[in-house]
Amino acid sequence: MRDDQYPPLPPLSVGPAGKCPRCGQGSIFKSFITLKEKCDVCDLDLTFADAADGPAFFVMLIASVPVLGFVLWMILGVGASYWLTALITLPLLIVLCILPLRPIKGWLVASQYYHKAEQGKLDTQE
Ligand SMILES: [Zn+2]
Predict the structure, then answer these.
(1) How many A from CA of 22 to the centre of ligand 1?
(2) Which pLDDT band, with edges at 50, 70 and 90, does 3 fall under?
(3) Cα(60) to centroid of ligand 1, in Å?
(4) How many CB atoms lie within 10 A of CB 106?
(5) CA of 12 to the centre of ligand 1 (A)
(6) Per-residue pLDDT tens for 80-116?
(7) How many contiguous H segments (helices) and E segments (strands) does the chain have?
(8) 23 confidence band (pLDDT: 50, 70, 90)
(9) In angstroms, what is the span from residue 98 Cα to ligand 1's centroid?
(10) CA 99 to ligand 1 center in whole angstroms
(11) Alpha carbon of 120 to those of 30, 111, 117: distances in Å?
(12) Rg of the Cα atoms in the chain
């Protein structure tokens, strides 16, 4: 089926759930963050999708600020030792960094499809 046979789906409605950006039904993931090559429902070729470092960048932005605030509060506010702070903070940091990876990657792939983002190329025809 062609792209114009499907209504455009907003990236936030399908991406975080890991659904196909074209049909909104098939899953785009074959493992935690590895993409399938095509949608099982509508056969959309997913090889166009290249989120690259995007998900990691957004996860770092989302996780680092609250964790840094927590660390400063633990050390300066509570007066906790560095070891206790590290013991509490490291698992928190791991959870806050890993859990959002998949929904953010799904959102970026859906946004890439929705906005037809692709590699820039020169227009050589005049
Ligand atoms: Zn699909």
Answers:
(1) 5
(2) low
(3) 29
(4) 28
(5) 16
(6) 999 999 999 999 999 999 999 999 999 999 999 998 8
(7) 4, 0
(8) very high
(9) 26
(10) 24
(11) 28, 17, 9
(12) 20
